[in-house]
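Sequence and structure are no longer studied apart. To make this concrete, we show below a single chain and its fold as tokens.
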Amino acid sequence: MNKKVLVTGGLGFIGSHTVVALQKEGFEVIIIDNLSNSSIDVLGGITKITGTTPEFENIDLRDKQAVKRFFEKYTEIDGVIHFAASKAVGESVEKPLLYYENNISSLVYLLQELNERESANFIFSSSCTVYGQADKLPITEDAPVKKAESPYGNTKQIGEEIIQDICKVSPQLKAISLRYFNPIGAHPSADIGELPIGTPQNLVPFITQTAIGKRDELSVFGDDYPTEDGTAIRDYIHVLDLAEAHVHALKRLLQNNEKSNYEVFNLGTGQGNSVLEVIKAFEGSTGEKLPYKIVGRREGDITAAYADTTKANQELKWKAERSLEEALSSAWKWQLEVKKREEEDN
């Protein structure tokens, strides 16, 4: 019998690519998504790629009774991968209560249900934002978790603490927190990709929307950072590599070979690229010229962050394989597909 996996936020950017990776590995997937930052069309994209339509439930995880009803309906779930959360740093600074309600209450309600079971496997979508501006680069999992620079970052820190606390008293619950660096790119088929609603909060969708003419120019937030070209440095990982890491983490939980019932892994490439380097790589890999301007720094942003991936490479038997250029090319191909769909709809 196929193992059943619940993927919350499974129609979102990372969630949808992870659903594809899980289905390709033979897992049976059930998606929960409230479509607040995603589209039901993504379900069709997943089906087109894999040939299988995952089960879908339109549920808001802030509704405790709805979460309870879901687990009463689906009694046999072998693992939960929890993506559903608000994730824009800038927006979280402006709307902190929205972020605390959405990101924390949904996690608590899920864990309350899982804690009632004889055994449960849980993967938490965390973030390198928990490290703040790390003292040393690259960042290992042992780096201190610093005071968060934004409410979004704080929800990830609090989320990890909640999971750690429940794992201490519930040996039947096994959990892994995956600390992502900066996911970019799209599926090579261009059937699914990153589809921000409104103004993009992340660099690459802003780049592709600018290149296609949807935005007048790209704003580069700050050129006075203490880096080689003055722009901030991040570790950009192809979303397909990231998705595959979740499959490895899930298999680790299912195989019962983890050292403790709570573990943490960094997911990145191990290499940092500045904003200007990403712009040049995009222009080089697509042939598109990108208009941009330097503006002031953005609140909540740090200078540099890139991962030490040794632990994930060794323990999860996983490594990021795809290049920055490959990720940017796939993001551009996806943007062209989005434009084509928009024109067809009009």
Notes: Residues 91 and 201 are 8 Å apart (CA to CA).
